[in-house]
Design brief:
It is a single chain. It is built from four helices and ten strands, in the order H-E-E-E-H-E-E-E-H-E-H-E-E-E. By secondary structure, the chain is of the alpha+beta class. It has one domain: 2,3-Dihydroxybiphenyl 1,2-Dioxygenase, domain 1 (Roll). The strands form three sheets. A four-stranded mixed β-sheet has the order 3-6-5-4, covered by helices on one side. A four-stranded mixed β-sheet has the order 7-10-9-8, with helices on one face. Strands 1-2 form a two-stranded antiparallel ribbon. Strand 9 and strand 10 form a beta hairpin.
């Protein structure tokens, strides 16, 4: 029975199940409601985001209440994120950084011009948490916090730093 749990049994031999191939990782940014629409506008100003798709929460009537964002898909270059308002449907364990009073992840953006991207984010309303500087790991790197509580690192690779034998 244990063999069957780890793979399909084939004439006494266990055939390992192929690992899935992943094609993208798109973080869902959960924003304190009803601020997802504002966050989308901020990401357009700060990062040049393009709105690919958006749907409104079906339980809200636009003519009666401010509509909540159920799902918005944004692209900026090769980077992609999803944005939505925090609602009960996002789950009890899923909260916006403002409601968590912090965040457990940093969203890392690589660009060909970290200084310009950093300045644009700050001009759009992000707060500097770490100024742009050359880092020993081979990046021009800085961090900002957006008005919705998300921390973004912005970097440009400057040199190839060899990995240690333990990591290779």
């Amino acid at each position: 029975m244990a063999q069957e749990e780890n793979g399909k049994q084939n004439g006494g031999a266990v055939v390992a199940k192929a690992a899935p191939v992943f094609s993208a990782l798109r973080p869902h940014l959960i924003v304190e409601a009803p601020k997802a629409a504002d966050a989308i506008q901020f990401y357009k100003r700060a990062f040049g985001a393009e709105e690919v798709a958006k749907s409104l929460h079906p339980k809200r009537k636009a003519e009666q209440e401010l509509p909540l964002i159920l799902h918005a898909h944004l692209k900026f270059g090769a980077a992609e994120v999803m944005v939505c308002d925090e609602t009960e449907e996002t789950g009890a364990e899923v909260k916006s950084p403002l409601n968590l009073k912090g965040t457990s992840a940093i969203l890392h953006l690589e660009t060909d011009d970290a200084e310009s991207a950093f300045e644009r984010a700050v001009e759009a309303g992000a707060t500097v948490t770490e100024h742009i500087a050359e880092k020993p790991w081979g990046q021009l790197y800085g961090k900002v916090k957006d008005p919705y509580g998300f921390v973004w690192s912005i970097a440009t690779p400057t040199k190839l730093v060899p990995t240690s034998g333990a990591d290779a």
